[in-house]
């Protein structure tokens, strides 16, 4: 049984994640994003960005490993082996760009049990080196409750 005392709590800020051109280009290629601003520095600068721009879903590459580490912590009590995504959203306050150094804080927003399943809502706030919010992700995750 997941520990309900986590609801309303926030985890400690993550170590900074250095966003690189290589990671952005690899991610863009992997998802079939062919926009020149994701691959070409000159095109990104011509569009008003300081460097290449990550596709919006790139935020998940930063947040999902942090979420996984939290969910695999025995102290929380989540059955990761039976987990599926119920819902996921990403809100960008500005594009993620190469050169960004982003810190993530995970917030445990909700945990409920219905119809034999635990449903967990986690919100991740990504901030830049100056403390400004760059993106927020929200994931509703589901795992089977013990019988």
Write a concise keyword list for the protein shown above.
147 residues, five-stranded antiparallel beta sheet, 3 helices
Structure description:
The chain is an alpha+beta fold and 147 residues long. It is 20% helix and 33% strand. It is built from 3 helices and 5 strands, in the order E-H-H-H-E-E-E-E. The chain has a 5-stranded antiparallel beta sheet, with helices on one face. A hairpin with a 2-residue loop joins strand 3 (101-114) and strand 4 (117-127). It is elongated and about 55 Å long.
Protein topology:
Blueprint: E1 17-18, H1 21-31, H2 41-46, H3 59-71, E2 84-92, E3 101-114, E4 117-127, E5 133-144
Antiparallel strand pairs: 1-3, 2-5, 3-4, 4-5
Mean pLDDT: 95
Number of helices in the DSSP assignment: 3
Largest sheet: 5 strands, antiparallel
Rounded to an integer in angstroms, the radius of gyration calculated over CA atoms is 17 Å
**Strand order within the widest beta sheet:** 1-3-4-5-2
- State the order of secondary-structure elements, H for helix, E for strand: EHHHEEEE
- Which runs of at least 5 residues are low in confidence (pLDDT < 50)? none
Shape: elongated
Report the β-strand fraction as a percent range: 25-35%
**Helical coverage, percent range:** 10-25%
- By DSSP, the count of extended strands is 5
Counting helices, strands and paired strands, the structural category is: alpha+beta
The separation of the N and C termini measures 11 Å
């Amino acid at each position: 049984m997941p520990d309900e005392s986590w609801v309303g709590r926030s985890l400690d800020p993550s170590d900074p994640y250095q966003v690189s051109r290589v990671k952005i280009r690899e991610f863009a290629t992997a998802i079939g994003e062919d926009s020149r601003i994701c691959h070409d520095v000159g095109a990104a600068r011509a569009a008003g960005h300081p460097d290449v721009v990550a596709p919006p879903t790139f935020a998940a590459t930063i947040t999902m490993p942090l979420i996984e580490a939290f969910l695999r912590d025995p102290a929380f009590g989540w059955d990761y082996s039976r987990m599926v995504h119920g819902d996921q959203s990403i809100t960008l306050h500005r594009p993620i760009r190469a050169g960004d150094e982003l810190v993530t804080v995970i917030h445990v927003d909700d945990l409920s049990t219905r119809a034999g399943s635990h449903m967990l809502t986690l919100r991740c706030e990504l901030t830049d080196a100056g403390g400004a919010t760059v993106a927020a992700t929200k994931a509703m995750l589901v795992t089977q409750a013990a019988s």
